[in-house]
Structures are given as structure tokens and as C-alpha cells.
Amino acid sequence: MTVPVGPARGLVAVAALLLGAVVAQGATSPSDATADAVPASARLTVVPDGPQRLDLATLVTELPEGGRIVDAETGLALDAERIRFREGAFVEADGVSAELTGARFDAPRLEVNLAEGRAVAPDGVAYVGAGLEVSATSARIVFEPDLVRFDAPRARRPDLEARALLVDVASGAAWLLGPYRYAEGLLTLRDDREDAVLQIVPTTTDAGTPTYRAANRVDDALRTRFAPLRP
Amino acid sequence: MTPVRCSAVRVARAVALVAVLAGALAGAAFAQVALERDPAWSEPRVGTPCAETGAVVELRGVGRATYDAIRVEGDRGRAVLDGGVCIELDAQEVRIRIAHLELAGLELAGTAPGDAVRVAAEDAVLDVAAWRLRAGSVRGRVDALEVRDVVLLGPGVLAVAEVGTLAGGEVRLTAVRAATDGYLFAADTAHLPPSGRLVLSGVEGTSCRDCPVRIRFGADRATADLDGGRLALAAPRLRVLGVPVPLGERLEVGAGVAEVDVPFDQREDDALGIVSTLRLRDSGGAELRAGTATAPTLAPVLRYAAEAGGDRIALAADAEGVTLAVGRAGPAAVGATTRVEAVADLAGADRSLRVGPAARWRGTSGGRATDVTTRVGLGVEAVVTPRDGATAPRAGVRVPAYAEVGATRDVAGLRLSGAARVDAQGTRVAGGSGGGVRAAATLRAGVGRTIDVGGGGGGTLDATLVRRWAGGPDPFGMGPEGATSRLELRSDLRTDALGSGADRATVRLRAYADVRLPPEAVGTDRLGVDAALDVDGAALGLGPDAESFRARLAVRADAAGRFGGDADEDGWTVAVRATWPEAGEASLRVGRTADAPIAVTLAAARRFVLRTGPEGGRVELTPTLGVDVAPWLRGEGPPRGVRHGLRVASADCCGRVAVGYVAEDGEVRVDVGVTLPPLALEGPPPLRLPARIEGYGGTP
Lengths: 231, 700
Hints:
The complex is a heterodimer of chains A (about 230) and B (about 700).
Chain A: E1 2-5, H1 10-23, E2 38-39, E3 44-48, E4 52-55, E5 60-63, E6 67-71, E7 77-80, E8 82-86, E9 90-100, E10 103-113, E11 118-121, E12 125-129, E13 132-136, E14 138-142, E15 147-151, E16 154-157, E17 159-168, E18 174-184, E19 187-191, E20 197-204, E21 210-215, H2 220-226
Antiparallel strand pairs in A: 1-4, 2-3, 3-6, 4-5, 5-8, 6-7, 7-9, 8-9, 9-10, 10-11, 10-12, 11-14, 12-13, 13-16, 14-15, 15-17, 16-17, 17-18, 18-19, 18-20, 20-21
Chain B: H1 3-23, E1 55-59, E2 63-66, E3 69-73, E4 78-89, E5 94-104, E6 118-128, E7 131-141, E8 144-154, E9 157-167, E10 170-179, E11 184-192, E12 198-206, E13 215-224, E14 231-234, E15 237-240, E16 243-246, E17 250-253, E18 264-269, E19 273-281, E20 287-293, E21 299-308, E22 311-318, E23 321-329, E24 336-345, E25 352-366, E26 370-379, E27 381-385, E28 394-411, E29 414-429, E30 435-454, E31 457-471, E32 483-496, E33 505-516, E34 525-536, E35 550-561, E36 571-580, E37 584-593, E38 599-606, E39 608-612, E40 618-628, H2 630-633, E41 640-652, E42 655-664, E43 667-676, E44 679-681
Antiparallel strand pairs in B: 1-2, 2-4, 3-4, 4-5, 5-6, 6-7, 7-8, 8-9, 9-10, 10-11, 11-12, 12-13, 13-14, 13-15, 14-17, 15-16, 18-19, 19-20, 20-21, 21-22, 22-23, 23-24, 24-25, 25-26, 25-27, 26-28, 27-28, 28-29, 29-30, 30-31, 31-32, 32-33, 33-34, 34-35, 35-36, 36-37, 37-38, 38-40, 39-40, 40-41, ...
């Protein structure tokens, strides 16, 4: 059963709100979703751009005209053209622009597993992080610490291609998994081996110009951190 | 005492004096280099490119490198490569293998454009063309590297240097010491251009490794050939007794080298007999030859020639006269060269002065199997003959000209050749007192073949048919008396008769025939055969004690005359010679020459060691004596001495200097020999030119 929620259906909305509060903790049901953010629980803050539909059977809420959701636990904030979510379980968004620890993701689709603290962008993604601008065919995000795995990434700054790119969102440190190509100034590093790894770490010159340090000997701490992203 | 004997004694005294001086030679120690080739240097093989796969870094404008580990510090414009680093530079055809490399001055994002990339590395291995260098350190801009503590390894050559540069794909080393299998060298500089040939400048070398250096050879420039480990010396010279002896323009040393340009020449001349000269050249190209002739005995011979910028001067003085020639090159046009020359015969029977211009043109063209050569020449000479006794001075004009076309073509393993030549000369004597035109036409057709007789043997067979018309004063109105036809046959075969290696006997057979052909059958026929069998002791089954024994059986016969008519043998010879290396030789020769009875000559030479010094140095004396026993056999008198000689040598493990003379049949020949094992400058050897063929070639 789907319960329409919106300004035109005030009574139904109130009833649904009451019902939702009872049978599904955390279900979001703003009385005026187009105006104010209505925290349904301590974790998600939802600001719909239009109506919300709550499926009482599945407790899945749909924002057909999109809106904004902020996950207080992961810090993920996303704006999307269309969103489906179930509190405590998942968020599925289309036409997404998301922010996480200062980094921005633009993706046709983003699927967030709230329970496991993971997300995937299966249909491609564009990422802008600390000194890194990447597009990829898909991405996998792990929260806390915030890590991203990009598959078949291509970037212009820095100029790189790889089988996969693992990024620590907070520090900007990244691994290119081979085969990879990485260019910085007049340098181009290549490795055609599947097990090759190149670690790049953003830094700045004395003049404050951003650049990178690159090495094919990686930090053990980063190896441990990236473990969840490695197959 | 005959003049010949007087001369021989003088020569013998001079030889003995030089020998004593040579024996007192004090050698200066040559800087010894103790080098061994490390087999590990061969891995990976020289020329092996850096890996195409794996970890690769490309440095735009610098090159590419493979490595085990890399660390790029963009904020410092620096890169550090470790472990199995292999670099191929763009600017130079150079490959560097190194364990640790630091690159600085990299223009990375965030760094200001710097100077050229700088390299710093220790203990590097560099491949330059087919040469391998190991450098204690490599530093500097990537397009102009400085290398230190360099060891260079190439085909047949090993060299060390303290410092050098690597720029533009060229390696330049200074204060170089080099070693080959047979020689040690010191050079001011070594240059290894991209062509891959090692060029040494200011070279001095020796083959002495185990004793003080008494003999050195040097060159302005030496080039090591990559293919055979040979060293070609430009302007080579020997230093014997501290005296430099030029060795001509070029000399090759190394394994299997036979191209040694000794400064001694020996030629046979119609009028002067055997002419022996020492050749001296200066760096400007002037050449002086001085020596003696055998007709008359020890008559002085002097030749001098110098040429610069097309101007040429030549002086020839001998028993025949003195000739001075001065010439200047004229303008060149349509591929032809022109020249104005004045020739003055200043002494002798035909004194004259000839002045005039001449033009020559030579063209060649070739296809896949055919080569065509064309020659054309035309000159004009004013000739002045001075008064000579009762003969009044004369003057005239002479116009010599020639044209020739020749072609060769390979057909089915045969080499076919043909040539046509026309010579003409018009003469006009001043005052209408004479002159005319003389001309000749010559046609040649030949066929030759290279044959393989198996067992490493081989040879050539050639046959040439020559027809010539000559006459005058009407240029081409020649009758039968002016026409001749001849067939020239040549063969040269060589084969190993008793296997190869130590058990070897080599047979060489050479033969020639020049035969008149009908219908005219003008001139003489000539036939000759020269056969030699070289055999060593092992091949003769003389046992291991005879390993050093070598023997030669030689048979030579020549005949000339009108065979089929009034046959008149020119001469023949049968000779047997046995040689014991380091000991002596003995020979028996039976032969006769035209108008002389048969001679039976027994000759022997025996080497005596007069003094043996420390380190193997010794002085050797080798007298030679030959007698003709034919008069004694015929009961006409005692044996007649026909040959005597003496050779004195100072020898040690570093080489040998020898001087000597041989007087035979009224001819005295002086020999000077220098031997640096395995560099041998023995000479000049006895020389006999092929039988002269009359009536062919040259202007009428």
C-alpha cells in the first residue's frame, strides 16, 4: 500500500505520519516536504523537492521529484532528481550530486547501504576531491573511514588511467591498481601488470602549489585502510 | 775486390753497427694495465633493450626507464628510481643500467620550469652502440653527462679512463689505457661516436706484456673496428731506438690482419733492376722515397712528390736521369679533370722539356650485374729538345689522345669482360721537318671463373683474348703486319692436400700462358708454371719433435719463344727448400736462364745466438751462403759462390729489430725488419714481378 504524502492530502499525510511513527521507526513523512527538512530520526534528514510516497508495506519512501538527504552518521549529503529510501536500510538515488568529507560525487545513480555503511555508483561517477578529479565507470564507497574505489577511472588532474583507483577521501591519498598510467608534468608512469600499485599522495610545493608524490612502494597503513576496497 | 763486393762489405759493416746499437737498447717500461674481463659484464647481452613491459616511466624529452621501485616527489621536482633501473635516453643512443638513480630538475606540475634534467648515479653500466661501459659515477645534465672511473668493453678491446663525457650519443674519454688480445695502448683521448667505432687519438701502443718495452708503435688516430676487434691506425709510426719510423698512411693490427703497409718498397724496373726504397711521408702528403737500385749495383734512387690544392711537384733522380714535373689542376667541367703540366728531363739521354694541358674524363655506370667504365683523354704538348752534341735543338707539338670503353658482367657464375680502346698521337715538328699520326686500336674479351675445389681450397681461372691493330702514319690503314692476336690464360689454385690443422700440407699451383694466335702470329709465346707444396713436420710423420719443422717444395718454370717454330726457352727453375723456424733453412735450386748453362745452387742460412740477456733478450746473427756446384759437377772448376748475406737481429719477448743484406748474382738487397708479435713488419720480401708482356697497352 502506498500512501501519498503532500500538501494536498493533509489528512492522509497526518494519518500516515502517525502510522509510520508507530510501525516503522524512522520513516520520513514531512507535513510540508517542499519547505522544511523534517528529521525522521537521528540519522537521515530528508528535504524533498516534491511529494513523498511511503509504501506502508515495505516502508520504502519515494521522492519522485527528488530532494536532499543527509546521513548524519556518514556525513553523506546527496541531492538527487529521484530518491527511494528506507530508513536504516538503503537510499537509492538517481541523478545524484553528493558530498562526502569535502569531496563531491556526481553520478547517474547512487545506491547507499545504510546498514553496512557502503554505497555504489553502478552507472558511472564523476568525483572531485582533494586535488583529484576523476570519472569512472563505477564507484564503490565505504564510509568511516571514507574510502572510494573507482573502476576504470580516467582523470585529467592528475592525468591518470587505471584498472581501479582507491581513494582515501579525507587525505586525498590514492592507489592506482594496474594496469595504470599516471602522468605528472613531463613524467608518465606506466605499469601493465595486474598486481601493480602506484600510490599518489597530494602535497604542495613551498609556494603552495598543489602537486603529488608518487611511489610504487605503498604505505602499510594505507594498505590496511584500503583492504575493504580490494577484491 | 769487385765493386759489388766492396758495397756488400760496407753494407755488412753498417748492419753490424746497427745491430750492436739495437742490442744495447734500453726499453722504457710501458704503463702496464692489468685488466680482466668480467663474464658478468656480458649479462644482459650488449644491446639488449630495456624491458617494454612492467613498470616504466617516460620522461618527456629525456627518455624512458624501467625500475623496481620509483618515488616521484612532485613538490621537489625529483625522482628516485631503485633496483634494476634501465634507462634509454632520447637525446643519446645510450642505455644505462643502474641500481639507484636520482633525477633532479624535473619539470613537474607545481614546479617551475627548470634546467635540463640532471642525473646522479653510482656504479652504472652504459650501453653505447655495441660497447659497454661501467662508470663509477654518472652525473650531470642528461644531455651532457659526466662519467668517472670508466671501464669500456667492446669487441676485442678493453679500456679504462678516469673521466669522460657522454653527450649527443658520443662518449669521450681522456687519459685512456686500452688493451686488446695482443696489444696495450695509451691514448690521450678515446671517442666513441654513435657509429660504434672506437677512435683513439694520440695513441701509443706495444705488444710487450712481460718485458720492458723496446719498440712502440703509435698513431695520430686509431679506430677499433666493431666487427673483428681490429685496430686501424692512421699515420702509424714505430719508435725504435727512440727514433720515429713512419709506417705509411694506414696500418691495421689485430687478429688475422694481413694489411700491413710497410714503409719499404721493392719494385722491378726495366732499366734499374730491383729498386728498394724507404718511404717517408709527412702529414701534408709529401712523400719521399730514397733507396738503391741493382742496375748498376747500389745506384741511388730518389723520388719526391708533393701535392696541395691541385698543385703537384715531382722529382725523380736515378741512374737513368733526373726528371722534374710541375703541374697544376685546371677547371673541371662535365665530370672531366684538366691539368697543365711541365715535365723537364734534366739529365740522361733524352733531355727535353714538355709543357701542355691535358683533360681526362672517366665515367662508370652499373646495373645489377653489369659494370661499364669509360675513359677519355686528350692533351696538347709543346716539346723542346735542347742541343745535344751535333744534334740541333728541336721544337714541336704533340697531341696524344685515347678513348676506352669496358664492361664486365656476371653470367651463370662466369665473369665476362670486354674492352675497346683507341690510342692516337699526332706530332708536328716545327719548321716542317717531320711529324705524323700514329694510332692503335685494342679489343679485349675475357671470361673468368672462381672455383671451389673443396676442403677449403679454391682458385680462379681467367682467359682473355686480345686483338690489336697498330700503325701509322695513316691512323687506321693498318695491314696484317700491324695486327696481333693473343690468348692470355691464368690460373691460381690452392688446396689443402693432407687435411687441415696441424697435419696440413698446402698445395698452390699457378700457371699462365700467353699464346699468339693465327693468322698473323706476331711476337712471342710465354708459358709459365709455379707450383709449391708447403708441408709441416707432423704431416710428414716425423713425430712430435718435428712439429716446428716446415718445408716447401717449389717448382717454377718459365719459357718464352715462338713455339711451334724456333722455340727458345727463356728459363726454368726447380727448387726445394726446408725451413726450421728459429733455426735456419736450406735449399737446393736447379735452373737455367736464357743464354746461360744450368746452375745447381746449394744455399743455407743458420741462426746463431750471440748473447742472451735477462728477460729473454738476445742478439742473433744469421749468415747466408750459396754456391753453384754446376761447374764442379761438369768438371769445369770449383763451386762458384753466388750468394752471401748477413742478418743481425736484436730480439726479446717484446719484438725483434733486424737488418741485413743479401747479395746474389751481382744484386745486393738490404732488408730491414721489425717484428712486434703478432704485428709483423718484415720486409721487403724478395719480389719478382710477372713476366712483362710486350706490345700491349699504353700510347703508341
